[in-house]
UniProtKB/TrEMBL annotation:
<keyword id="KW-0812">Transmembrane</keyword>
<feature type="transmembrane region" description="Helical">
    <location>
        <begin position="21"/>
        <end position="41"/>
    </location>
</feature>
<protein>
    <recommendedName>
        <fullName>Lysylphosphatidylglycerol synthase TM region</fullName>
    </recommendedName>
</protein>
<keyword id="KW-1133">Transmembrane helix</keyword>
<keyword id="KW-0472">Membrane</keyword>
<feature type="transmembrane region" description="Helical">
    <location>
        <begin position="210"/>
        <end position="230"/>
    </location>
</feature>
<feature type="transmembrane region" description="Helical">
    <location>
        <begin position="236"/>
        <end position="259"/>
    </location>
</feature>
<feature type="transmembrane region" description="Helical">
    <location>
        <begin position="169"/>
        <end position="190"/>
    </location>
</feature>
<dbReference type="InterPro" id="IPR022791">
    <property type="entry name" value="L-PG_synthase/AglD"/>
</dbReference>
<feature type="transmembrane region" description="Helical">
    <location>
        <begin position="141"/>
        <end position="163"/>
    </location>
</feature>
<keyword id="KW-1003">Cell membrane</keyword>
<dbReference type="GO" id="GO:0005886">
    <property type="term" value="C:plasma membrane"/>
</dbReference>
<feature type="transmembrane region" description="Helical">
    <location>
        <begin position="266"/>
        <end position="286"/>
    </location>
</feature>
<feature type="transmembrane region" description="Helical">
    <location>
        <begin position="298"/>
        <end position="320"/>
    </location>
</feature>
<feature type="transmembrane region" description="Helical">
    <location>
        <begin position="53"/>
        <end position="71"/>
    </location>
</feature>
<dbReference type="Pfam" id="PF03706">
    <property type="entry name" value="LPG_synthase_TM"/>
</dbReference>
């Protein structure tokens, strides 16, 4: 027997296989859950709802998702320029969209991939580009919290349990955008653990770098773009329910979409898989939408938002990887 046969797999290989198994397991559970609900309500009714959708309606839903990605990609570019990164618009969009390929990986590896591309192309260390990722995620949390609060106040009946999710989203956004507060929390975490001093030192440096974004016009524009982007997808959900004959009102549809997306994220599952779908079906059912409508509506909106983003990411990823490998380090291309 050769030595290679006795050599155990590398930890990185084991980790990749474990991550793939986790994603496949989550996908299987989501698929089984939706299939079980469809079976319980009757496949004929569920299929009939799906066949009611026309090609132009699917294109409209995808177009609204593209609007969301476009506005959030522009926000990424604006924040990158504010941070001082020597990148141009097409380059930033390539990084942002390419990262979508990793949307359902544990730990949101897509963010790390974007920082790796930036390091190759600009020479900036990860701790220097980390504030860009933090601000981007905080911007999403902030605008989703604001949209949810607005939708609850305007929707008839509101949503039970939405207030804690809104508060958590806004609190996380506040912490992530306050350099001194975030640096203090990093220091407390280091004192509690008493190890990994180099990592915590880099984390404190990244937290202090957030001060670059404490600029009124930049924050206003970033929040406006994020708000418009997420509202586009919420409106897409409203349109979809109308296409399926279950119009529950714009603000109730937006509230259910945003709440489910945030709730899915709070479960810790990659891409909110499982949690977002369960919340969406449950909330629609509580609002009187029959399962033969809520199940296919949930499946379609997730396909035209999350999975459409992943498809775009998979298309852009090899382009971004190739460009980063051939870029002269230390400058944008």
């Amino acid at each position: 027997m050769s030595l290679s046969q006795n050599t155990p797999p590398a930890p990185s290989s084991l980790r990749r296989w474990r991550d793939k198994a986790l994603i496949l397991g989550l996908l299987a559970l989501v698929g089984l859950g939706l299939a079980g609900l469809a079976s319980a309500t009757g496949w004929e009714e569920t299929w009939a709802q799906l066949t009611r959708l026309h090609l132009w309606q699917i294109i409209a839903l995808l177009g609204l998702s593209l609007a969301n990605y476009g506005m959030r990609g522009l926000r990424w570019h604006i924040l990158a320029r504010r941070l001082g990164l020597p990148t141009h618009l097409a380059q930033d969009f390539r990084h942002y969209l390419g990262g979508f390929a990793m949307s359902v990986t544990p730990g949101r590896v897509g963010e790390l991939v974007r920082m790796r591309w930036l390091k190759r192309e600009t020479g900036w260390a990860v701790e220097r580009t980390a504030p860009l990722v933090l601000m981007d995620r905080a911007g999403d949390l902030a605008v989703m919290g604001l949209i949810l609060a607005l939708a609850i106040s305007l929707a008839a009946g509101g949503i039970a349990g939405a207030l804690p999710v809104t508060v958590l989203a806004l609190a996380a956004a506040v912490v992530a955008t306050r350099p001194k507060l975030l640096a203090a929390l990093v220091t407390l975490a280091y004192r509690a653990l008493g190890r990994l001093p180099r990592i915590f030192a880099r984390a404190r440096q990244a937290a202090r770098s957030l001060a670059r974004f404490s600029h009124g016009p930049t924050l206003t524009l970033a929040l406006t773009l994020g708000f418009a982007g997420w509202m586009a997808e919420g409106y897409a959900f409203h349109l979809l329910l109308g296409f399926m004959g279950a119009d529950i009102g714009l603000w109730k549809a937006v509230a259910i979409f945003v709440f489910s997306t945030l709730a899915g994220g709070l479960t810790g599952a990659p891409g909110g898989l499982g949690g977002a779908e369960a919340a969406m079906v449950a909330l629609l059912s509580l609002d009187g939408v029959p399962l033969e409508v809520s199940v296919p509506a949930t499946a379609v909106i997730r396909l035209t938002t999350l999975w459409f983003a992943i498809a775009i990411g998979l298309a852009v990823f090899p382009l971004a990887e190739r460009a980063s490998l051939h870029a002269p380090q230390g400058g944008g291309q």
